[in-house]
Amino acid sequence: MKRKAVDAKESPQVKRRKEQIPDYCDIQPRKDDSGTILWPASSEAIEIARDYLRECAAAKAKTLIVPDKDADGLDAGVIIHRTLTALGAEASLIDVHLVGKGKSIHDEEVREAMSAKSPKYIIVVDQGSRPAPPVVDDPDVQSLIIDHHLSDEFPENAKVVSACHYPPVATSSLLTYEICKTLHPDIASSCGYLCVMGTHGDLGNILKWDPPFPDMKEVFKTHTKKAINDAVSLLNA
Fold it and tell me: Which is nearest to 53 in space by CA: 17, 88, 102?
């Protein structure tokens, strides 16, 4: 005896299977009066960050990158390092400071440790923020903060680019990638997988990468999702 075909209209199970699960990228981005999408941060802040990185690379001076220690922060830090060297900065002049467990860049001992490395430029990535004195006390040191955590207050005298008010909110690695990929023709191809790793680290691995997020199809052709997600697990362990 043949089974009667199940009518999808009458089957709750089929209905549930067909229901669309909302994606992070489905959130509508902000737009200006002309209808231009404002993402991943204000265009003014993004250009300030790009100018800072250009100046930093050209200065041939000691630079300190201070990333968070999760996948998002570390991948953003590598993108910055590769961008600076691509722009002509000497790798020997770029240092990294990892903040100790339970500590903050605002703690006095951390500020002293960063200052002891004698940087002229400090780039703080994915550390969150709050109102605070300058990143270090030396008034000649220039600081850039790249972040996505919700905050409207930051250390004094720092240049800031924040994604927190520009939905769908970019991770710090994605924000960094969007800032840096126009600064040198090699960055998009050499750092795309870092952007994906950092973003999956914060947002999970089922992200569809729909607009306004960048198209990452080429990345997934050369770096499988399994490889990327395994790397994320190791970084976040």
Answer: 88
pTM given for the model: 0.91
Find out whether 172 and 76 touch, Cβ atoms under 8 Å.
yes
In sequence order, what are the residues at sequence separation of 6 or more whose Cβ sits closer than 8 angstroms to the Cβ of residue 139? 157
CA-to-CA separations, 165 to 26, 169, 181, in angstroms, rounded: 16, 7, 21
Residue 12 pLDDT greater than 70, yes or no: no
pLDDT tens-digit readout, 51-103: 999 999 999 999 999 999 999 999 999 999 999 999 999 999 999 999 999 99
The answer to whether 232 and 71 have CB atoms below 8 angstroms apart is yes
Tens-digit pLDDT profile for residues 111-147: 999 999 999 999 999 999 999 999 999 999 999 999 9
Strand partners, 63: 94, 121
Give the C-alpha distances (Å, rounded to integers) separating 129 from 10, 31, 138, 144, 211.
52, 26, 20, 12, 28
According to the model, what pLDDT value does residue 237 have?
81
More confident position, 159 or 17: 159
State how far Cα 69 lies from the chain centre: 13
How many Cβ atoms are within 10 Å of 198's Cβ, its own excluded? 33
Q: Which two tokens stand for residue 9?
A: 């209209």
